[in-house]
Amino acid sequence: MRRRTLGITAVSAAALGAAAACGSDEDPTSEETTQSFSGELVIWADETRTPVLKEFVKDFESTVGVKVTVEEHVDTLRPDFLTAVEQGQGPDIVVGAHDWAGQYASAGAIAPITLTDDQKAALNETAVKAFTVDGNLYGVAYALENLGLIRNTALAPEAPATFEELISAGQAAGTDEVLTMEVGVDGNAYSAYPLFSSMGGYLFKDDGAGNLDPSDVGVDSPGGIAAFEKFAELGADGILKTTYDASNVIPFFVEGKTAFMISGPWALTDVQGAGLEYEVTAIPGFEGQNPASPFLGVQGFYISSGAKNAVFAQEFVTNYVLTEDLQLKLAEAGGRLPALTAAAEAFSEGNTDIQGFAAAGENAVPMPNIPAMDSVWEPFGRAQADAVDGASTGEEAATTAAQTIRDAVAG
Amino acid sequence: MLDQRARTAGSTTAAGLIVKIAVLAVVAALAVWAALPLIAAEAWWGLALEAVIVAIVFYTYLQSRTIPLKYLVPGTFLLIAFQILPVIMTVGTSFSNYGDGHRASKEGAIESIVAAGVQQTDGGTTYLLAVGESASGELTLLLTDQADGSTWAGTEEGLTEIEGATLDATGRITAAPDYTVWTLADLNERQAELAELAVPTGEDTGIKVQGLSAFEGRSTRSYDEACDCITDSATGTVWYADDETGTFLTEDGDAALVGWRVNIGLDNYLDVVTDPDIRGPFLGIFAWNIMFAAGSVLFTFVIGLGTAMALNKPSMRGTKIYRTLMILPYAMPSFAMLLVWAQMFNRDFGLINDLFNLDVNWFGGTWSARAMVLIANTWLGWPYMFLICLGALQALPSDSLEAAKIDGATGVTAFRKITLPLLLISLTPLLISSFAFNFNNFNAIELLSAGNPFMAGDAAGGTDLLITYAFRQAFGTTSADYGFASAVSVFIFLIVATISAVMFRTTRNQEDVY
Fold this sequence. Notes:
The structure holds 2 protein chains of 2 kinds. Chain A is of the alpha/beta class. Helices cover 45% and strands 16% of the residues of chain A. Chain B folds into 3 domains: 2-94, no CATH class; 118-219, Periplasmic binding protein-like II (Beta Barrel); 273-513, MetI-like (MetI-like fold). Chain B has 18 helices and 15 strands. In chain B, the strands form 3 sheets. In chain B, strands 1, 2, 3, 4, 5, 8, 9, 10 and 11 form a 9-stranded antiparallel β-sheet that branches. Chain B: Part of the ABC transporter complex MalEFGK involved in maltose/maltodextrin import. Probably responsible for the translocation of the substrate across the membrane. Chain B: Keywords: Cell membrane, Membrane, Sugar transport, Transmembrane, Transmembrane helix, Transport.
């Protein structure tokens, strides 16, 4: 079924291209032909995706005949888009992470998208859920990423099955640090979440269908408190430190100061550059507890609610983004797993890094995209930092964070 | 040659004239460039304003009188555009609830909420889309059922099956009897018309176009102007508009996803003044903010003056090398320096703790963090004080000091009674502006401590300045609240303006004394 849909898209692309070519006397591949009419489709993307997209949109340009402009926005893409849409400007399509969906949708900046059942089935199920806000799909996914455990195989040959094993293996390696993962003076809810979830903590109650209830905050649930007590314990033992931050987590691993690092696909460039022998595996949970589930981050395409070229923006996002070709190209550029299952299978074949991260992502939950999530990051992170630093007990940290989050969500 | 001839012809004016013509031509070109979108948007007030500005500019430079005006006009326009307008807009925003969840207009919010109610009908058909016109010129959707390949024409009356349509390889209609099929170029040009066409298929179902396909959808939500409410027929939910808060609320008080921007009067200001959760941190931040600004000025000034006096001694050797070295911290970009300092203060791996064999958690304790930002900011700021003190010292009249020496005042007394008061006359305005600068020294805090430490549950950190606090409210990781952040900014503006005004008044009195 899935194959057939893709086939139709491909054939349709070719046929339309031929039709467009017939209408013109010029060389069908020349730019003149592709700009056979004045329409323009504008896409905003960040610096890593822009070059790949520029390549890919050429197919779309030549088949449909609409000129596609990909504009690069470094760093401030997320707020830029909101501001632009408010002013009645901005692109037709924006490429970004799924957790922007809540904010964008509540600002009325993006339009809902309807995918056929076949199209949904072709995508990773969690990736579809990740872009769903209030029961509507707002984005089409192309890549998945999550944290994993990166291990220096020379220092620690065996993949640990539990977090306790990880600690003893890290200590046995005789390195300065047992493990590096981002904490920082402000804490880091993203990298803390796998351990938090392993102890049974949750952020917002899931109704089972993937809808989160912002009024049910689980940071101070029994599991949440247990997790924060674990943070305090690990902090007291010197396993976690608030001085591990973005500036040293990867360098320490690369310099061999630690055998283990909890990080994402972005770390691999440096690790490979250093010529280390490494393996990516799942983050182990605590002994006798749940498996550690990292956040799944999904990258995808949104359609602006103010798109000036809505018809072609919808066509691009609903049909062209879901081609194996684009997903593979984007995956190669970013080193992330494609969201299209067929492309993911093709991409991970023979790629142990991707397989490792995919294994680590088996239990992953999509990072909550509801607007209430914006109120979680800071209090959660600071509570984690306090617990790790011993500034407060785990229970105090968890209850204060939960209270702050509840206050903020209630507005 | 050319130069000489120009001069003999008395033609500095000729060259000036050419420059003037060129600049005015650029102004005229910019005016036309700016006018076109204004005309397109029918923004006649904007156009009138632009015309007035251009007229003033041309009038000022095309006549030979009013020389001062020629200098004042560009400055005034830039002042209005980049200083006064932002202040007015900030004040305007501070009276609204503008922020996450309240970004749209009411119409936009209604549109978004209603649009989110369009769902594909269960097992609904999906179609490949072509668009055309019937013989009578009626806009028609030409649809191919993706399941069975049947072809349909969709108009405002509904769907009718069509026979004898020509399909391309994918199944899309390329020609049909009695219809003119649009090319993609036509579709691109006329997609606005397409957006207005609704093709019903049942009581509350219709054909929804999405790209070059379409599906049968059901619109479950509708807005009713009479009750100013949105009803979802599928779930039975009714959201009533609350114009005071800019949200659609159910009777249970659950808000719809999208809200809109409304004027909430003085609420943001009242929040700062009355809400203990906000007032408490606000006063604390304010006190530390004064300490930080005063401390930065004091330390940089004392160290800067001390080094300047040392280098100003005639017996001092190697002053050039010292001067060069001392300017270095000032010459390096402070962004980079602050990030380096932040690394040096790392408790476990930082240079400072390593070097002095300390175990201070610089970012973790309120006072250690405050000491940290003051140390770094002093290091960054004193070369400036050193420079201006050195200049002022060299400009001091030597006769006063010599007279003092004859009267028997030397060393400390001479410095205290003669040098310092004389220096302060010229330096006080600079110290005040340095105070005002440090009062809003966003970079020093944001890049070094980022406001840390934060006590559990606090919104404000131990080293937060008002400006970093306001910034976090507006653009922080928690949801954006531009209205509140603007109110805090207005407070900052008032505070800095008051302090500066008082200080300048005191200085003026001081000048009278000496």
